[in-house]
Design a protein that fits this description.
Elements: H1 6-18, E1 22-29, E2 32-40
Antiparallel strand pairs: 1-2
Length: about 50
C-alpha cells in the first residue's frame, strides 16, 4: 500500500480542484507516491461557418 502523508493528500486535492476537464495521474514506486501529473483539457464549442 502507498505511503500517504498530509502534504501528498493536499497536493492531490489541489490538483483535483483546479481541473475542469482532464486527468490526474498518481505514480507509485516501491509503495510510495512519487509523482503527480495533471493534464488540463480545453474544450471549444463547435461553430458553424457564417454564410455570405
Amino acid at each position: 500500500m502507498a505511503t500517504i502523508n498530509e502534504t501528498k493528500v493536499q497536493q492531490i486535492i489541489t490538483a483535483l480542484k483546479k481541473i475542469n476537464y482532464g486527468s490526474v495521474l498518481i505514480t507509485i514506486h516501491d509503495g510510495e507516491i512519487t509523482q503527480l501529473d495533471s493534464t488540463e483539457k480545453s474544450r471549444f464549442s463547435k461553430t458553424k461557418p457564417v454564410k455570405s
